[in-house]
Specification:
The structure is a homodimer of 408-residue chains.
Chain A: H1 7-10, H2 16-30, E1 37-38, H3 50-63, H4 79-90, E2 102-105, H5 108-114, E3 125-129, H6 133-142, E4 148-149, E5 154-155, E6 159-162, E7 180-184, H7 196-209, E8 212-216, E9 242-247, H8 248-252, E10 260-263, E11 269-270, E12 273-274, H9 275-286, H10 292-300, H11 304-329, E13 335-337, E14 343-347, H12 354-364, E15 367-368, E16 370-371, E17 382-386, H13 391-407
Parallel strand pairs in A: 1-15, 3-6, 3-7, 7-8, 8-9
Antiparallel strand pairs in A: 2-10, 4-5, 9-10, 11-12, 13-14, 14-17, 16-17
Helix pairs in contact in A: 3-10, 4-10, 5-6, 11-13
Chain lengths: 408, 408
């Protein structure tokens, strides 16, 4: 008799974004004619930029000819893309990351989930609280999270690191020894960043303990302040203790185009094994690479035109973030993030619960948000707003929330 | 200290196709000016058909406009594609497979590898011998294969089912109880098919033992004989014991375009859980769907024009298979497969070893093949030839091998 992976049965309820979608759908069904403005799911809305479109058309044409056809590509990504990434995302910022250390993939979500394959199930895992649910759920599936304790809203084997107002939503290394540490800066959901000194403390901790930092910098393109680090590899010592995840999703609007990459430095070894080799083995065995057409599209992001065009889109979203942050702050709400990130972390008024405030804003302002509690216990009392909507919609949504607050 | 997944360290040597590529590269480097004709790696060579190219161009254009842009799609695939698959690949052949049972993905390799996530590590796994290495390696990574016994070329916890001339390369259910059973028909590497009666015996065995058949039918489009089943779901009782993997790779030349799908019937339950829900949870947590442009390309395969065009390409490869089979059979070699499959399984002359014959054919005929021993112990004494090359190359390769045999 087949035994299923029992860990799956421990996963509580439905995935956060599904529940948000369900509530919105239910509300819309019950209130025909009402239009909901979404500041909830973190999906981009600006179309792909002309340089990417052009490159994709060109490569689609290639795929239709005998000479230009591309079959199986290297599982790790084509050299043209790995080299462009190394040059523009790393060398240009003074970091030495080699193309062989870069694994192109179909998404940071896939990579953050699949990276667990190469680690034992007996590692201790530390996550921020609140946290992007994928880190927690994938570890729960692997058995590293232990059991879910409903009353606490926590897994009993995970180390939760509260990210709260008092620590600027950027935690210090824990007292316990964590083996695998998920960090995400600029942060989803709080929009917080970490300083160079804070990251240095993490790198020192990881090197001292043999831990590995799984660093998600999917939002680095949104950093506006000069001194905020874009990559963990800007920090001395990171190459012996960190893996970095990046994505074209938010940087270049690739959420429906699917391209990302993961950096595993050659120096990174544990238990006598080079992690670059383990990840290479994982990817070559369970993955067959990203579509040629998509990789050509991603390459175009690094051309001068492509670069200029995506920066316009990022600036567009950054203006939205500013509108939300300033509009709601001036209405008396406490807002965090949104300066170096597309996310604004809003404290609910009067200590209201996340889901209650979510329902209230949905009903009174017809704006969809994401309840902070869905990202972990320390997210209770917050909601997440995203800057990925249209400019007019964003202005309107902020106005509606302000109006709702005025009405009291 | 981080513990790696120790199972990775048990994986022997390099992946079969890498070793083949390495030997070809070494030979080419040592013999400048010599051109190697590849009948080795199973990659297609015909370009994408015009209907697919058109659909991709159209959807690339959409992605460049605010109205037509598609961000995150459903992780399971867009309804337009799931419905087209259900209608054309199943309903048209009298099978009732619902769109909700179809999970669109980036590849059958990914799905065959990732499906293990939803099963416990203590299941007993049965594989054919010879076998597509991904089934074995992914189970080894999960710990289900036990330890690799170098002297036997086998893992000590896997059940190997020899596929040999005596059983027509189609094994009977084993005496032992296997929980997870990987079957692939038409088979890679042997090109063998299973009869309806043989599959019925498997389904009965699986239902009697609570086993699950993981049925890879990636090559079903190459079936020419009327009575050969295209899907495990043609067999009564399969919906309570089987998962099916299919791909656009060989059917429509999508090896560089990346699209496949997996069917998990709603009736399939084990340990009180619906496997469709478990796989849905796995995919929504660790995967973000296939690029919109690629899904539109895959949809075009089901239009009348698209269908006619891909059938032409399949017929082209089928003629290659015939050329290989007939050309080498008439030269006195024993050939199997190649009738309902793009693979020909060639018995080496004089009981020569697979790798020796590989080296001989590479050196004397300048033809690259794949050594049967690379697919498992029972593959020793065979090589695999593929029909995916150009027609002229295939004729030439066959001529060269015949010439080599004549020279003795």
């Amino acid at each position: 008799m087949v035994k299923i992976n029992e860990n799956y049965l421990k996963l509580p309820g439905s995935y956060l974004f599904s529940e948000v979608a369900r509530r919105i759908a239910a509300y819309t069904a019950a209130h025909p004619g009402v239009t909901i403005t979404k500041l909830s799911i973190g999906d981009v809305t600006r179309p792909l930029v002309p340089a990417v479109i052009q490159a994709m058309h060109k490569s689609v044409d290639e795929m239709g000819t005998a000479e230009g056809f591309h079959g199986y590509g290297p599982e790790q990504g084509y050299p043209f893309l790995r080299e462009a990434i190394a040059r523009h995302d790393y060398a240009a910022r003074g970091m030495d990351v080699k193309p062989e250390e870069i694994f192109v993939s179909d998404g940071a979500k896939s990579d953050c989930g699949n990276i667990g394959d190469i680690f034992g199930t007996d590692n201790t895992v530390a996550v921020c609280d609140p946290v992007y649910p994928v880190y927690v759920d994938t570890n729960a599936m692997a058995g590293r999270a232990g059991d879910y304790v409903e009353a606490l809203g926590r897994w009993n084997r995970l180390i939760y690191m509260p990210c709260v107002e008092a620590n600027g939503f950027s935690p210090e290394p824990p007292k316990e020894t964590a083996d695998l540490i998920y960090l995400c800066f600029p942060n989803n959901p709080t929009g917080a960043t970490a300083t160079r000194e804070q990251l240095k403390a993490w790198v020192d901790y990881a090197n001292a303990n043999g831990s590995i930092i799984l660093y998600d910098s999917a939002y680095e393109a949104f950093i506006t302040r000069e001194d905020v680090p874009h990559s963990i590899f800007e920090i001395e010592g990171a190459r012996t203790c960190a893996i970095e995840f990046r994505s074209f999703s938010k940087t270049a609007g690739f959420t429906g185009n699917r391209c990302a990459y993961t950096v595993v430095p050659m120096e990174l070894e544990r238990g006598g094994a080079r992690l670059n080799s383990l990840w290479n083995r994982r990817q070559t065995t369970k993955f067959n690479g990203v579509p040629y057409v998509v990789q050509r599209g991603a390459e175009a992001v690094y051309t001068p035109e492509g670069r200029a065009q995506i920066l316009e889109n990022i600036a567009y979203y950054q203006r939205n973030a500013q509108v939300i942050r300033e509009g709601l702050t001036s209405a008396g709400l406490a807002c965090f993030g949104g300066v170096d990130a597309p996310y604004i972390w809003l404290k609910t008024p009067d200590g209201m619960g996340s889901w209650d405030f979510f329902d209230l804003v949905l009903d009174r302002a017809n704006v969809a948000t994401t309840p902070g509690a869905g990202f972990g216990p320390s997210g209770e009392g917050y909601i997440r707003l995203t800057a990925f909507g249209g400019a007019e919609d964003t202005v309107q949504a902020v106005d509606r929330i302000r109006e709702m607050l005025r009405r009291g």
